[in-house]
Amino acid sequence: MWPSAVLLAHHLSKNPSLVLGEVGSPDGDVMELGAGCGLVGLTAAILLQHADDDDKVIFTDYNPVVLENLQKNIDLNDFHVDHRVLGLDWFDQAEHQEQQYHKNTWVDVEGNEHAQVRLILGADLIVCTNDADLVASTIHSALIDGGKAFILGADKYTRFGVQNFPDACRALGLKVTVLEDVLGSNFAAEVDGAMQQQQLIDEMELGGYNQRASTMAHDFTFFTITKPFGKSA
pTM for this structure? Predict the structure, then answer.
């Protein structure tokens, strides 16, 4: 489990309005990009269930083995929110959007089109240099006008492409705010009390994060991305 997924799941739990939306937010479903084991999407599903919200959660990843394991994890969790598990290839989205008749949809690995969503969540998506452009184009393709994406990952000192991601989003007309040094910010301080702070670190270390080892100690970067109205046209 990626440490970023643990941190993002905690943040959503402390700030359920990020998932539930606010007054004036567009209607639509919720997507987790690069879901892996699905922790972030499962967190969103539980929050939607507690609020009696009927939005769907769409879990996406590319690798068939990952998708199979993801479905098993979903089956093990007791929630009743409508959901789907779909294969999604980031490389397909830019080409899909270039075709005029595909506007306002994104495409899965089988070529099926799907309606854009109001919220995209993702943890540790950007690893390679070209991931910046691929993730940006996928968000642009899959996000409805007025929708938001919350992306959390390791910082630019440990992941190629992180530094280029804001410009890749802005080149497509997306608005981006960046919070660096997450562990030293109010973002991480939302976990109340020293005991819960340590519990969070312990959970992150299960995914390989290690505060005490210089080769594994890193910070995180949090991106808030908004798609202005009129950018799908």
Answer: 0.88
